[in-house]
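Narrative of accomplishments. A recurring question from our advisory board has been how the design workflow behaves on a single, concrete structure rather than in aggregate. To address it, we present the structure tokens for one chain from the evaluation set, followed by the sequence designed for it. No filtering or post-editing was applied between the two.
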């Protein structure tokens, strides 16, 4: 078995100010440059298409299970974790969100794990939420690791003023998901305030590979002023942050519901608001920061025409990381989504460029950005992490990536510069729609043995660094 066969066989926290939170579960917020706002699920917007029997809600630290004001059941921890102690936040830190006033603290074992049942093999949206609330009176919020099924999810950095949450979409390989809290520093005790999982329909996010864990990095409700949308406005429990990027004009549609929507079923209340460019000749430029790391992202963009206008045309091209994705003509009261997978280094860039025949400016209603687990950060840690598309060394400390196997992943655009990954021995990215020139740095990777770029849309010549490299088997 060659390395390709062996390999291919087998980000971002959000912080919320907890001092001014309105029921049924959400909050004022400070995150990613967004002004303070209230997270508020309006029942009038609910589609009620999602049964809640397959939604697990745990109010961590609660002594009993109960029903909230919406009639939804919140469970205590006892059936899901066997360790830890129930605590309450300090009275001065109380929140109107009931589940944030209690927490489960783990001060004895280094690693403590919840077992969440997953009766279906479909994907689940999982969210973990943390609010220190000075429960111990020490004013020393802790730092610890969050893990899922033995894989590192995030380093949780808590603070005195905000609560933090992390969210992912994940298809378990068994009948449960293990969510663990791991102590990484002396006297830094892990805790958790709220833990949820909800089953997603099979047809949602078709371009996101099911055998991957995708971390939500951004989800923006463009044109909204101060309302963070969550359940029940979104029956799938997604959180949509309001955003009006500088230089763009907020727009509100003259309708209140969508006739035809995307397979991802975004909430109508997120789609009736939008931002548009100042004129029909202007381009919308959107940037999403990730630090100076390479990352594989899935971006999902949502569009609708907010007004029924006779004799006008709105048409624009969607460009992701300088690569053409599609051209769209938004339709009145119909929501269309356009998705793309893209490799990036540092910033992910999205452009909406008006076509020549457009008389109206480009517009966007909402966007979601997910990042593939393992591509950024420390992909080989912890050591027992196993991903079908990734192979790591066992001799190096810390372990290093030696093989990338992303055949048939729907990758689009040009390859970013990942020349810093100089331990790579295998790169298999055949059967995608990658384009542009084949990068010169690939032939300079000192340990590369196999490079498979077949069945893509590359242009130009193969660099001589590759063709003259006798140790590289190029396909």
């Amino acid at each position: 078995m060659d390395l390709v066969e062996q390999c291919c066989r087998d980000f971002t926290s959000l912080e919320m100010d907890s001092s001014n939170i309105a029921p049924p579960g959400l909050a004022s917020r400070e995150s990613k440059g967004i002004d303070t706002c209230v997270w508020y699920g309006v029942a009038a917007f609910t589609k009620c298409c999602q049964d809640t029997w397959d939604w697990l809600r745990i109010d961590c630290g609660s002594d009993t299970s109960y029903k909230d004001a919406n009639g939804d059941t919140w469970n205590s921890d006892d059936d899901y974790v066997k360790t830890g102690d129930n605590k309450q936040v300090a009275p001065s830190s109380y929140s109107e969100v009931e589940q944030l006033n209690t927490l489960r603290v783990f001060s004895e074992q280094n690693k403590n794990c919840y077992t969440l049942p997953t009766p279906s093999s479909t994907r689940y949206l999982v969210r973990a939420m943390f609010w220190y609330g000075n429960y111990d009176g020490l004013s020393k919020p802790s730092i610890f690791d969050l893990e899922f099924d033995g894989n590192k999810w995030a380093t949780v950095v808590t603070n005195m003023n905000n609560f933090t949450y992390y969210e992912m979409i994940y298809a378990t390989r068994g009948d449960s998901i293990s969510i663990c809290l791991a102590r990484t520093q002396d006297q830094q005790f892990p805790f958790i305030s709220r833990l949820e999982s909800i089953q997603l329909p099979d047809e949602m996010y078709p371009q996101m590979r099911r055998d991957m864990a995708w971390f939500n990095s951004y989800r923006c409700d463009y044109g909204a002023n101060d309302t963070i949308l969550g359940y029940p406005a979104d029956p799938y429990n997604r959180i949509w942050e309001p955003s009006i990027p500088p230089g763009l004009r907020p727009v509100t549609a003259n309708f209140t519901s969508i006739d035809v929507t995307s397979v991802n079923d975004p909430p109508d209340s997120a789609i009736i608001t939008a931002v548009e460019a100042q004129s029909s000749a202007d381009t919308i430029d959107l940037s999403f920061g990730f630090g100076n790391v390479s990352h594989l992202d899935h971006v999902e963009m949502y569009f609708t025409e907010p007004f029924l206008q006779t004799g006008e045309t709105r048409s624009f091209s969607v460009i992701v990381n300088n690569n053409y994705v599609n051209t769209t003509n938004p339709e009145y009261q119909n929501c269309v989504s356009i998705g793309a997978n893209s490799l990036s280094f540092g910033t992910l860039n999205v452009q909406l460029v008006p076509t020549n025949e457009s008389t109206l400016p480009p517009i966007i209603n909402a966007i979601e950005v997910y990042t593939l687990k393992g591509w950024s950060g420390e992909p080989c840690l912890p050591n027992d992490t196993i991903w079908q598309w990734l192979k790591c060394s066992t001799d190096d400390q810390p372990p290093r990536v030696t093989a990338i196997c992303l055949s048939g992943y729907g990758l689009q655009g040009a390859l970013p510069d990942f020349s810093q990954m100089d331990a790579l021995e295998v790169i298999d990215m055949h059967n995608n729609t990658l384009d542009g020139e084949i990068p010169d740095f690939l032939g300079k990777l000192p340990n590369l043995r196999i490079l498979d770029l077949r069945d893509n849309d590359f242009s130009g010549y193969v660099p001589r660094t590759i063709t003259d490299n006798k140790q590289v088997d190029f396909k």
